[in-house]
Amino acid sequence: MKITILGCGYQGLVTGTCFAENGHTVICVDNNADTIALLQEGKLPLHEPGLEELIVRNLEEERLSFTTDLPRALEGSLMVFLCVGSPSDKDGNVDLDNVLSTAEEIARIREGYQIIVNKSTCPPGTAKKIEVLWRSRNPGDVVVNPDFMKEGSAVDDFLRPDRIIVGCRDIRVQEMMRELYSPFLRTGKPFLAMSPESAEMAKYATNAMLAARISLMNQLADLCEAYDCDIADIREAVGMDSRIGPTFLFPGIGFGGSGLPRDVAVCARLAEEAGLEHDLISAITAVNQRRRQQFLQKILDYYGEEIREKRLALWGVSFKARTDDIRDAPSLDIIEGLCHAGAQVVVYDPVAGPKVAARYGEHIEMAQKYYGALDGADGLIILTEWNEFRRPDYARMGKLMREKVIFDGRNLYTPSVMKEQGFRYFSVGRKTV
Ligand SMILES: NC(=O)c1ccc[n+]([C@@H]2O[C@H](COP(=O)([O-])OP(=O)(O)OC[C@H]3O[C@@H](n4cnc5c(N)ncnc54)[C@H](O)[C@@H]3O)[C@@H](O)[C@H]2O)c1
Q1: What confidence tens digit (pLDDT) does each residue in 402-425 have?
Q2: Rounded distance between C-alpha atoms, residue 101 and residue 390, angstroms
Q3: Which of 44, 204, 280, 300 is deepest in the core (most CB within 10 A)?
Q4: How many Cα atoms occupy the beta-carbon half-sphere of 428 within 13 Å?
């Protein structure tokens, strides 16, 4: 089948490439000509493990192509996947302009029957709006197909999903979607069919639930610090309960990225608009925002006024490991807070360096290697759980640093080991040593 993908960001590239990998002919469209030029050469505008290799292979085998030419991309395609951004502000108001104007543009161009599949995260009721635009000229169907891939393991998540959710009103279209996804569901994972509105809500509900676990765990970490307990022990104790499970229970500096913070805010906004209570949902966001400030305050309290003379090394900026995505990363608030306080900040991130440099310019110093950032540093601040930070050479670190202090926002090290190595070590939900 020929498939058209609209939007060549994280979502669109992974979706298009994985369908091509399954033998479909996929044409991906973006209105950013620089992005398309890069992709046509088999180069990526973003970092996602395993994706480049698949793109190159499918380009070579002519199952995958990239263009800015929307009319050409739509020719002969039965399904068009919308993977454009659907940004929202901090109050949870979603800007649907991009999604709706793209759907309208395609409706204007297309000839004959087509199915539009919305993978962009949109509030319940959006599919209905798309339906009106979509059917204004030609017959067609609208499907909601939320995605749950995680940046950093997106290819694997797409190829081996926990479930596929499809919201549509037509049983034949539903069966076509089942057939499309059947190669990904061979291990018996479920295909869940529901109304478009429920499918739209399923994405927000999932993210609100995940975010709630993190915020609750972070408050439990504070409790552990106050009562001399170790959150790592508590996490194990809690996670072993079969009613709870072990994932999404790691305490830290809070969640970030383009999904969780935004989707929780949208949930609160939707409740507000429906005249419903949303104190629990809103608390998830409030706890998360405070988290960043609390961690920053720990650093500011330690150095006091002298922070203006301090050179602080920072490891990791991306909102999580294995991605270069820095959208709403907790690290940004911490970098900005440190710069505001007058510290000299030296940053290292394995892949997000260019995005960080473009954002902060001369306000911060970029290090090319992670030990390089430590040279003459009065402290190290760890903000992303990159694997390469997990077992460093402590002796080498100690020699490079002027002051052996570590603020670890991801609990990568063992306090007793850090004490033995002569570091002052601050972590989350554990005793400072
Ligand atoms: N990133 C994720 O992990 C993820 C996971 C699940 C769902 N989603 C959803 O997928 C959607 C896209 O997210 P993303 O992270 O890929 O965003 P992104 O910003 O990385 O990519 C969006 C792409 O769409 C392109 N675009 C915008 N308007 C266009 C238009 N009119 N025509 C053609 N191209 C256009 C942009 O140039 C950009 O390349 C969002 O709604 C998001 O909520 C993302």
Answers
A1: 999 999 999 999 999 999 999 999
A2: 45
A3: 204
A4: 26
Could you write out the DSSP letters of every residue in 114-149? EEEEE-S---TTHHHHHHHHHTTTS-EEEEE-----
pTM score of the predicted model = 0.95
Q: Which band of pLDDT confidence, cut at 50, 70 and 90, is reported for residue 250?
A: very high
What is the 87 CA–ligand 1 centroid distance (Å)? 9
Average pLDDT in the 303-316 region?
Answer: 98
Q: Whose CA is nearest to atom 12 of ligand 1?
A: 85
In whole angstroms, give the CA distance from residue 155 to residue 184.
Answer: 12
Say whether pLDDT at 134 is over 90: no
Say how far apart CA 424 and CA 433 lie, in whole Å: 6
For the residues 298-309, what does the mean pLDDT come to? 97
pLDDT band with cut points at 50, 70 and 90 for residue 138:
confident
User: Which ligand 1 atom minimizes the distance to the CA of 147?
Assistant: 6
Amino acid 305: pLDDT: 96
Whose alpha carbon is nearest atom 21 of ligand 1? 9
What tokens appear for 217 in the block? 């765990």
Residue type, 384: T
Do the strands 424-426 and 405-408 form a parallel or antiparallel pair, or are they unpaired?
A: parallel
Distance CA 395, CA 209 (A): 41
- Tell me the chain's radius of gyration from C-alpha atoms: 23
Residue pair 172/140 in contact (Cβ under 8 Å)? The answer is: no
Count of H-run helices and E-run strands, the chain: 16, 14
Give the pLDDT confidence of 348-358 residue by residue, as tens digits: 999 999 999 99
Whose alpha carbon is nearest atom 41 of ligand 1?
120
Q: Which domains does the chain have, with CATH numbers?
A: 2-194 (3.40.50.720), 204-282 (1.10.1040.10), 293-426 (3.40.50.720)
Beta 64-67 vs 79-82: how paired, if at all? unpaired
CA–centroid distance, 82 to ligand 1, in Å, is 8
Given ligand 1 and candidates 4, 5, 6, 11, which is best to mutate, with the most ligand atoms within 8 Å of its CB?
Answer: 11
Among protein residues, the one whose CA lies closest to atom 20 of ligand 1: 9
What average pLDDT does the segment 57-85 reach?
A: 97
Q: What is the mean pLDDT of residues 51-73?
A: 97
Residue nearest to atom 25 of ligand 1 (CA): 7
